[in-house]
């Protein structure tokens, strides 16, 4: 399958997906990276791995719809079959999401449906959680709300702060995202009637 990754920043999850896809047995090829930020650090990383990048900045468009239409054009030009949101920090328009329904997945740094939105690690600490983690889910118009494909849990340790906890979760993210992408590419996880359908999982 041809994968395009969308980012806004650091790109460590993007890097984990690229690394996984370097394995010839992995059922996905990363064919491009799209960023809404010209200074996203992940862009250089992608370039250094030989992956073509495109910047589609919100400021260059009059509306959110026009912005997403321009992104969609880039996805089409790349021949994208599946889109991975890897730290893409902007809510996508319903029309765009509808078009990619079942073919666009996102990673979120919390065990959904808890802690949607930003600042998840501090909020998990503030709530006194003893377990935290990350989720990969199909993207629906509501933020961090689509059907769950896979999750990974990590302990919250005594003395953790935002930095130590986020580092532990990030490590789990880098394992989880390739695993979830593989499930989607192989048709083992698909979106049906608003839910994730699993098939052929040992
Ligand atoms: C990750 O924690 C991801 O779950 C969240 O944004 C962060 C992106 O980090 N959506 P990176 O750009 O992949 O390093």
How would you describe the overall organization of this protein?
- The chain has about 200 residues and is an alpha/beta fold.
- The chain has a single domain (about 1-190), classed as Formyl transferase, N-terminal domain (Rossmann fold, 3-Layer(aba) Sandwich), CATH 3.40.50.170.
- The protein contains six helices and nine strands, in the order E-H-E-H-E-H-E-H-E-H-E-E-H-E-E.
- The strands form two sheets. A seven-stranded mixed sheet has the order 3-2-1-4-5-6-7, with helices on both faces. The chain has a two-stranded antiparallel ribbon with strand order 8-9.
- It starts with a strand and ends with a strand.
- Bound molecules: 5-O-phosphono-beta-D-ribofuranosylamine (GRF).
- 5-O-phosphono-beta-D-ribofuranosylamine (GRF) binds next to helix 1, strand 5 and helix 6.
- 5-O-phosphono-beta-D-ribofuranosylamine (GRF) binds near residues 107 and 108.
- Its EC number is 2.1.2.2.
Task: Provide key terms for this protein.
202 residues, seven-stranded mixed beta sheet, two-stranded antiparallel ribbon, purine biosynthesis, GART, EC 2.1.2.2, Formyl_transf_N_sf, single chain, Rossmann fold, binds 5-O-phosphono-beta-D-ribofuranosylamine, transferase
> Which ions and ligands are bound to the chains?
5-O-phosphono-beta-D-ribofuranosylamine
Strand line-up of the largest beta sheet: 3-2-1-4-5-6-7
Calculate the terminal CA-CA distance, rounded to whole Å.
Answer: 22 Å
What's the CATH architecture name? Answer: 3-Layer(aba) Sandwich
Kindly provide the radius of gyration, computed on alpha-carbon positions and rounded to a whole number of angstroms: 16 Å
CATH topology-level fold name: Rossmann fold
β-strand percent reads 15-25%
H/E order of the elements?
EHEHEHEHEHEEHEE
Structural class: alpha/beta
Low-confidence stretches: none
Give the number of DSSP strands.
Answer: 9
